[in-house]
Amino acid sequence: MKKLHDFYFLKAKKEGFLARSIYKLQEVQEKYHIMKGGDWVLDLGAAPGSWTQYASKIVGATGRVVAVDLQPIRCSGGNIITLQQDAFDSLPEGLLPAEGFQVILSDMAPKTSGHRELDHMRSMALAEQALNTAMRLLTREGTFFCKVFQGKDLPAFVEQCKKAFDVVKLIKPKGSRSESVEIFVLCSKKKEKGE
Q1: Secondary structure string (H, E, C) spanning 114-170
Q2: Is this prediction's pTM over 0.85?
Q3: Is residue 147 annotated as part of the catalytic site, yes or no?
Q4: Please, what are the domains in the chain?
């Protein structure tokens, strides 16, 4: 298992990315094309910034990535805006595109306690807040991609997502360690309110 960690960790270092988690997003992007040139992307819990780095390459000069975290985000670029604040605080004036974000990403995880049930509940609480943010800030037809820890409350969360999006998939990227309880929920084609 150590080998997998070494492979992605070393690959990230060699390719200039801040964390191995970049390859989870890259795999999903290459398969489902969740981001495109010109998109506005909101990256919740972005530190250290590998998803932001990757998203900024995809959206290009005409797109924007707004990256938010309590911790410092260690990347910058002409199309990257970083905010050191709670991911669920309101965004400053001018950072909210008129029609909404096309994509909202959340790789947030709670500080783990080692108690699987407690960690699951904390992870689900973050995911629900991220989903509420997506409901408010995503454009119609927008995409929400979110990490959660598996456990008893996951099916109810997936059902909540299905009420808000036409397409909902559970994905375990190759970059996730096989022993990890993390799984990702990919929600696309946000519905109109009340659809």
Answers
A1: CCHHHHHHHHHHHHHHHHHHHHHHEEEEEEEEEEEECCCCHHHHHHHHHHHEEEEEE
A2: yes
A3: yes
A4: 2-190 (3.40.50.150)
